[in-house]
Design the sequence.
């Protein structure tokens, strides 16, 4: 009955079942895909889940091939696997996630009933929510959006298919169901496009868009709560550091980070000119060196004060009285548990209470745990000069006893063998020419000396043999990376008796022109040196790879430098989305939220004003046009417009323009109304209506020629009366 | 159709048909539905094919109708040696006037009973074709109109196929309705048995309707109003027969026109000047069944007829009537 119109085409029960099967597989894939960014050890399970969902979606007859014995055993085995996993790993959440994956796999290997489909929806939702809480990433939002759409579609299909499936014979258990045997996605697609009514599809899309819009409004309007604190999930996962920014760094580790071009840090600054031309983001200080490994000495680790839990950390440098500069940092997960900072700070504010340790001397902050999601913090009155004042160390240095370095680090230790020391001394003498130099001058000359002898390269040529790698490289003329440069400078300084240390972190960054924030990528990882300047009473940054010493200073970015680092690439565009998302979800107080609401309100007011202005401008121009002199051209345009308006009105009124091809034409309102009353009377009278006089009139109104119609209003009134009378009369009529 | 039909003419037409019905009921016992359909056929100006076993009253029905009408009636008993000229008439040479004179055949009557129509040769059967379609006979290039009204009342026996020539489809399509008589009910048959039966000539009924009344009735039928949704309903049924896999081919355009005018006639017979969906659905089987052949022919004609009727019933049931 193709030609009988689209309305007559309905999906058959088998087609509903196949559609349900396909949507369920899609949900399984979406749910399993969350493991990709959750960093939970389940690559095998995830691959299996993908494979199971895709294979059974393509070949729906496959689950019938699963041995029948599997089904009664499946749940006990899954529970046992979960228990074993929990016992072995000791962590609840990864085990639960793996359990979810196992269930998803099993659900794809057996034919699902309706309640099993609901279970798939819930399992996928659980995985997505866990992933969302763990990562707070933009991917999560997109993922959830797609998931919600597919899940709604599945629920719709379940609802629509219920009647059809109830009418169809139920499938015998243990056999390949008919729909799976004859599954043909191409045919289903054609049937769907035949059945699909664009108005229904449009309505569905509009409803979904409305849902998303409402959620977004609610999201803006509800008070912020601390996701991580209210859900303990974060604590259930321990993660390995992805990066090399740990307390121990082997030669080459920082350079490895540079190979990764993803964003490590985004900084919100009110004015990009406040960021120095070449900013240095300090994270770690490494004071101990032995055999190619830089590490924090126990003494330096002792400088960290005890663990504290707080949302605010007052800093060393005085907070300015008038408008305090505030930089907001968004540190990506997996970079380090040491927070990147530009130097001393007036205060450090977190979104929530966090547990951390603070070393005021080297101006370092270390969280207890590496954050598993993006970590946001605000730095008030950040200092970013080349000199880091350290009065404690200055006092200690002044009061040092020669040859003794117990307790506190003096940053002069050289754990080298004698030949290496000798080589070092020779090189130092070559730099200084035998003179005793102050720290800044020594740093400058040593930098020049190193740059003269060595080229910069990410693949260094380190001489092999019995010699210490850094010293060996130092006396050779091979190329090297930043760690070699920085380590060499520190060793040279120490051999001259100057306190020196290696600092790791990031150098540079770019200004994202789309989201107006500063972006630092992992590829900007860097190591440099700090040498103690006794006369200044602080640590002076010494970057042997930065020839322009002035640029190492605090000099604010000039317009040229600012322009040079503006990034308008496609990656910047994508990163701007991420920052936009961060700004929306991260809030330190209610200010940001109020700001967002105000912005929205203003935008709405502006656009309505724009609309009113535009309309009144149109009205004005129309009035001017009408009041102008009328010539033939004007008359033509006016009559043409009028004719078009009349034509459109005629189409609207008479409905001559049929939008639908084929199908049942809707009768006019009087006929429809008469048909409704007829049906109501038939229901009320129990089928037989010929005894009612009004029935003939109704029939005439419905099917008769309009010229012969009785008065519709009076007829409908009578019909109403007749329906009531029939209802009253009916219960007493004896049933035959 | 937009012409306004005076309510008086409708009532008049209904009364006339009611009179014929009453008259026929006196002769044919317990076959009210068949009589209703015969009246529909009469009002719509169509031809009728009566099909059943011998001896269930086919010919009696034709006689009863013919006698109720004040019209000329003729009966042609179709046999295998009947020639076309025996039906239409022949031109013979008149010695006195020295020219050919057309001698009218038995088809020149208002009601023609073609008894056992499938017993004659296709040549003679097709001689009926033009008469049925155009209500005229052409002999030697000269047209001779038959009577008005003109109605062929054919009967045939579907079971006994020995030595018969089944009607070609082109001729089947020209019958408006095909009806089955069926056996009468037990009470009706007892009544028939009780009464003495004295042959067809003993059927004594008085004419209750004049020839001009029948012509006026037939002119009124096309003016019965058919609402758009009812036309859509007809269209959907017709389309369904064309897409349904159980039929060898669907109903022709002549078939859909036939359904429309039959529905209009039924509405008129019930005193309505408009068609309701029930008019259409109740006439689908008699109008369409003989125009359709099952896709898988069987050797048993009755079996085929049952299959077609069942498929039609299912098909009409699946199409929602306009409400």
Sequence:
């Amino acid at each position: 009955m193709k030609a009988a119109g689209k309305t007559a085409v309905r999906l058959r029960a088998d087609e509903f079942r196949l559609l349900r099967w396909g949507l369920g597989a899609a949900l399984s894939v979406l749910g399993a895909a969350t493991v990709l960014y959750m960093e939970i050890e389940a690559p095998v399970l995830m691959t299996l889940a993908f494979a199971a969902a895709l294979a059974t979606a393509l070949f729906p007859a496959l689950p019938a091939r699963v041995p029948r014995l599997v089904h009664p055993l499946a749940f006990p085995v899954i529970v046992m696997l979960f228990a074993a996993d929990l016992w072995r790993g000791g962590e609840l959440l990864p085990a639960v996630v793996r359990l979810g994956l196992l269930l998803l796999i099993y659900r794809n290997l057996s034919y699902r009933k309706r309640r099993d489909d609901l279970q798939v929806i819930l399992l996928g939702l659980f995985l997505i929510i866990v992933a969302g809480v763990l990562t707070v990433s933009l991917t999560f939002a997109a993922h959830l959006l797609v998931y919600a759409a597919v899940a709604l579609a599945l629920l719709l299909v379940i609802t629509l298919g219920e009647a059809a499936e109830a009418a169809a014979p139920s499938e015998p258990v243990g056999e390949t169901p008919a729909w799976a045997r004859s599954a043909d996605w191409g045919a289903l697609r054609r049937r769907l496009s035949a059945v699909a009514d664009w108005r229904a599809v449009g309505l569905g899309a509009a409803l979904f868009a409305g849902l998303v819009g409402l959620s977004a409004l609610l999201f803006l309007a509800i008070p912020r709560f601390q996701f991580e604190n209210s859900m303990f999930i974060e604590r259930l996962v321990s993660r390995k550091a992805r990066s090399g920014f740990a307390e121990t760094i082997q030669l080459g580790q920082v350079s490895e980070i540079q190979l990764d071009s993803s964003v490590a840090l985004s900084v919100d600054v009110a004015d990009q000119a406040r960021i120095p031309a070449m900013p240095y983001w300090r994270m770690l200080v490494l004071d101990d060196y032995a055999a190619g490994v830089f590490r924090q000495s126990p003494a330096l680790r002792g400088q960290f004060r005890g663990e504290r839990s707080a949302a605010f950390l007052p800093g060393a440098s005085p907070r300015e009285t008038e408008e305090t500069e505030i930089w907001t940092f968004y540190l990506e997960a997996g970079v380090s548990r040491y927070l990147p900072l530009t130097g001393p700070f007036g205060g450090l504010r977190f979104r929530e209470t966090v547990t951390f340790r603070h070393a005021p001397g080297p101006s370092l902050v270390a969280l207890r745990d590496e954050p598993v999601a993006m970590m946001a913090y605000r730095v008030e009155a950040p200092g970013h000069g080349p000199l880091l004042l350290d009065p404690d160390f200055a006092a200690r240095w002044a009061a040092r006893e020669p040859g003794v370095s117990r307790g506190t680090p003096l940053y002069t230790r050289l754990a080298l063998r004698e030949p290496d020391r000798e080589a070092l001394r020779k090189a130092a003498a070559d730099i200084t020419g035998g003179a005793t130099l102050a720290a800044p001058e020594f740093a400058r000359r040593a930098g020049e000396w190193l740059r003269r002898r060595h080229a910069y390269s990410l693949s260094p040529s380190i001489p092999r043999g019995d010699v210490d790698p850094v010293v060996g490289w130092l006396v050779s003329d091979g190329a090297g990376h930043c760690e070699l440069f920085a380590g060499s400078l520190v060793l040279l300084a120490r051999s001259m008796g100057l306190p020196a240390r290696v600092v790791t972190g990031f150098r540079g960054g770019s200004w994202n022109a789309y989201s107006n924030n500063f972006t630092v990528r992992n590829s900007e990882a860097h190591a440099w040196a700090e040498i103690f300047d006794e006369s200044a009473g602080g640590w002076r940054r010494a970057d042997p790879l930065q020839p322009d010493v002035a640029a190492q200073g605090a000099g604010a970015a000039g317009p040229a430098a600012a322009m040079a680092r503006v990034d308008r690439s496609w990656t910047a565009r994508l990163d701007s989305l991420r920052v936009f998302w961060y700004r929306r979800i991260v809030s330190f107080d209610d200010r940001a939220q109020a700001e967002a609401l105000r912005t929205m309100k203003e935008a709405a007011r502006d656009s309505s004003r724009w609309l009113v202005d535009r309309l009144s401008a149109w009205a004005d121009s129309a009035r001017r046009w009408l009041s102008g002199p009328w010539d033939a051209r004007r008359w033509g345009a006016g009559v043409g417009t009028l004719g078009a308006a009349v034509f459109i009105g005629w189409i609207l009124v008479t409905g001559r323009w049929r939008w639908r091809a084929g199908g049942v034409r809707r009768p006019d309102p009087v006929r429809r109304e008469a048909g409704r009353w007829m049906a109501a009377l038939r229901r009320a009278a129990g089928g037989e209506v010929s005894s009612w006089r009004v029935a003939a009139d109704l029939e005439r109104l419905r099917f008769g020629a309009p010229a012969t119609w009785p008065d519709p209003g009076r007829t409908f009134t009578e019909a109403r009366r007749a329906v009531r009378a029939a209802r009253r009369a009916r219960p007493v009529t004896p049933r035959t | 159709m937009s012409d306004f039909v005076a309510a008086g003419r409708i009532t008049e037409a209904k009364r006339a048909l009611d009179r014929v019905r009453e008259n026929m009921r006196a002769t044919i016992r317990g076959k009210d539905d068949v009589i209703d359909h015969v009246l529909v056929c009469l009002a719509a100006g169509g031809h009728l094919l009566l099909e059943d076993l011998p001896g269930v009253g086919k010919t009696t029905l034709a006689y009863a109708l013919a006698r109720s009408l004040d019209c000329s009636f003729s009966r042609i008993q179709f046999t295998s040696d009947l020639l076309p000229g025996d039906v239409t008439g022949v031109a013979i040479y008149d010695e006195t006037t020295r020219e050919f004179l057309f001698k009218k055949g038995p088809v020149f009557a208002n009601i023609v009973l073609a008894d056992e129509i499938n017993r004659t040769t296709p040549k003679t059967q097709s001689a009926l074709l033009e008469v049925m379609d155009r209500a005229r006979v052409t002999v030697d290039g000269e047209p001779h109109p038959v009577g008005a009204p003109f109605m062929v009342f054919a009967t045939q026996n579907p079971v006994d196929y020995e030595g018969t020539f089944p009607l070609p489809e082109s001729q089947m399509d020209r019958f408006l309705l095909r009806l089955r008589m069926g056996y009468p009910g037990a009470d009706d048959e007892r009544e028939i048995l009780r009464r003495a039966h004295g042959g067809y000539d003993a059927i004594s009924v008085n004419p209750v309707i004049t020839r001009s009344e029948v012509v006026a009735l037939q002119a009124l039928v096309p003016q019965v109003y058919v609402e758009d949704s009812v036309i859509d309903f007809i269209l959907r049924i017709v389309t369904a027969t064309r897409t349904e896999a159980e039929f060898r081919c669907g109903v022709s355009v002549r078939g859909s026109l036939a359904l429309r005018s039959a529905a209009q006639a039924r509405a008129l017979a019930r005193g309505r000047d408009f068609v309701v969906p029930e008019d259409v659905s109740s006439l689908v089987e008699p109008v369409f069944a003989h125009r359709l052949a099952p896709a898988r022919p069987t050797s048993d004609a009755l079996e085929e007829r049952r299959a077609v009727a069942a498929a039609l019933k299912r098909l009409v049931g699946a199409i929602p009537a306009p409400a």
User: Anything to note?
Assistant: The CA atoms of residues 172 and 291 of chain B lie 7 Å apart. Chain B touches chain A at residues 1-2, 4-5, 7, 225, 227-230, 232, 236, 239-240, 243, 272-277, 318-319, 322-323 (CB under 8 Å). The longest strand of chain B covers residues 89-94. Chain B has two domains: 1-210, 224-323.
